[in-house]
Design brief:
The chain has about 30 residues and is an all-alpha fold. About 85% of the residues lie in helices and about 0% in strands. The termini are far apart.
């Protein structure tokens, strides 16, 4: 798998994780 695609998937995953963290913090969980 080309590094560019791997990096892109990692950034998408990282962004998703950040969104989940922000949502959890907003919920006060």
């Amino acid at each position: 798998m080309p590094d560019g695609i791997h990096e892109r998937l990692f950034l998408i995953w990282k962004n998703g994780s950040q969104i989940e963290t922000e949502t959890t913090a907003a919920d006060g969980t």
